[in-house]
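[09:14] KT: can someone run the structure on this one? pasting the chain below
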Amino acid sequence: MNLEIRSLRAGYGANRVIDGVDFRVESGSITALLGPNGCGKSTLLKVIGRLLAPESGQVLLDGKSIRDFDTKVLAESLAILPQLHHAPGETTVEELVEYGRYPRRKNGFVLSVHDREVIDRVIAMTSLETLRKRPVRTLSGGERQRAWIALTLAQEPEVLLLDEPTTFLDVCCQFEVIDLIRRLNRECGITVLMVLHDLNLAASCADRMLMLKDGGIRYAGTPQEVMKPAILEEIFRIRAEVIRLPGGTPHCIPTGSLRRG
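[09:31] RB: done, structure tokens below
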């Protein structure tokens, strides 16, 4: 399922955060959205996920505006995992994942045999079998993030929007989450658009990287095309060396800040 953004403008009251954004995410690809703090990454993802109404412009799924989708039908095609999320009370992993089946339930709140099969499959896919009866609040950061990703997978979406899925995780957990996202993309064909802060994580898994600054897309291309010292200096105000890892993946080595004051 292709995702296309046309002339999008959005913000909060008089504060416009996104100003004329255009890009396309090809079906079956992983696209990483990067940029400095406050540049509008999360706002853009909220508009694409229909959590925030735009001032103008369009978000299209296979050529159809998301405004024209019934909410439940849209949830069958597109899932979003915001940066901040909270499971109430003693909600277990299994109960959390069950919530993801709501858009596809045929009999209200009754889970069908197929619903149970999907829940079991995504719990296995996210390596949560031994944790399914544990309250979400008792999990580690990486385990908790896998549980929330499992919830979105239970929707069986074709497009997955992730807002900083590796934030607050240690290095090992970051790699585990990125490996899971990459596997979901390759094995299930899910189209992924995600906000990331870590340039090297993004370069390791994304087909395309979008560099956002001051409300607009400044650069878009493969990691090899946009991970260049001059671009990183302009977007992030850092000095950096860029080396190539075996296989050709670019790797950024920051050497200093160019900010003043």
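[09:33] KT: thanks! The mean pLDDT is 93.
[09:34] RB: yep, looked fine to me
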